């Protein structure tokens, strides 16, 4: 997906509608800086406002993602290409998120263990100070672990080993599930059976 091409296309469509960046931004309840980022190819419009943007500019979402007006002869092919590109971008984003999960989880473990080790090994007086130090890492570590689990929940899918259904589990199910790495023992919402389910990036 060519962001530079899409940006130039958005700018051209906006000018044809005699709209400034500020006027377009006001219609979408965003900042003109966001519009400027689109038009310079630094970012793509968020999916939540794509339909509204296309309606204002008088184009289709397929036109927007193609960076040009798509003729009916090429409509289905362009649509398929754009969908495949969006899937690839989501998978790449999910990979980055799962790497971030390891970083957050690792830092949370360090935050948890460092005060415990210091409190146990260092000669600290009085005793209540030692206890405070030992327990000082629990709350920030728990917050960190929560974010790591949230990242794992939203990035990619879990695949049922029975029916092969792929889905995003609820956060409550993630907390309650025994796990080994990113493989969790959960109930599939499709077949209702419990199994060890692996994390996968693609839904295909």
List the helices and strands and how they pair.
Blueprint: H1 3-16, H2 21-28, H3 32-39, H4 47-57, H5 61-66, H6 75-121, H7 127-135, H8 138-154, E1 157-159, E2 166-167, H9 171-176, E3 179-180, E4 183-187, E5 194-200
Question: What report would you give on this structure?
Answer:
The two termini are 20 Å apart. The protein is built from nine helices and five strands. A hairpin with a 6-residue loop joins strand 4 and strand 5. The protein folds into three domains: 68 residues, lambda repressor-like DNA-binding domains (434 Repressor (Amino-terminal Domain), Orthogonal Bundle), CATH 1.10.260; 65 residues; 49 residues, no CATH class. With 204 residues, the chain is of the alpha+beta class. Strands 2-1-5-4-3 form a five-stranded antiparallel beta sheet. The mean pLDDT is 87. The protein is flat.
Strand order, largest beta sheet = 2-1-5-4-3
Percent strand equals 5-15%
Supply the number of helical segments.
9
The secondary-structure class comes to: alpha+beta
Computed CA radius of gyration, to the nearest angstrom: 24 Å
Would you give the CATH topology of the largest domain?
434 Repressor (Amino-terminal Domain)
The top-level CATH class of the largest domain is: Mainly Alpha
How many strands? 5
In the CATH hierarchy, what is the architecture of the largest domain at level 2?
Orthogonal Bundle
First-last Cα distance: 20 Å
Q: Which spans have pLDDT < 50 for at least 5 consecutive residues?
A: none
Mind describing the biggest β-sheet?
5 strands, antiparallel
Indicate how many domains the architecture comprises. 3
CATH homologous superfamily assignment of the largest domain: lambda repressor-like DNA-binding domains
Mean pLDDT: 87
Question: Per the principal axes of the C-alpha atoms, what is the gross shape?
Answer: flat
Helix content bin: 55-70%
Element-by-element helix/strand order: HHHHHHHHEEHEEE
């Amino acid at each position: 997906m060519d962001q530079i091409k899409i940006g130039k296309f958005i700018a051209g469509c906006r000018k044809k509608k005699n709209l400034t960046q500020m006027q377009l931004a006001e219609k979408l309840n965003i900042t003109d800086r966001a519009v400027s980022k689109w038009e310079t190819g630094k970012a793509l419009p968020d999916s939540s406002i794509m339909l509204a943007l296309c309606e204002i500019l008088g184009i289709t979402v397929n036109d927007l993602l193609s960076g040009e007006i798509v003729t009916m002869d090429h409509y289905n092919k362009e649509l398929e290409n754009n969908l495949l590109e969006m899937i690839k971008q989501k998978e790449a984003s999910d990979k980055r998120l799962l790497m971030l999960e390891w970083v957050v989880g690792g830092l949370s473990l360090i935050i948890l263990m460092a005060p415990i080790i210091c409190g146990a090994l260092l000669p600290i007086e009085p005793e209540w100070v030692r206890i405070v130090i030992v327990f000082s890492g629990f709350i920030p570590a728990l917050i960190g672990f929560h974010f790591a689990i949230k990242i794992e929940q939203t990035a990619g899918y879990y695949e049922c080993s029975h029916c092969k259904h792929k889905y995003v589990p609820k956060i409550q199910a993630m907390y309650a599930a025994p796990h080994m790495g990113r493989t969790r023992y959960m109930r599939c919402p499709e077949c209702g059976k419990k199994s060890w389910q692996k994390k996968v990036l693609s839904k295909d």
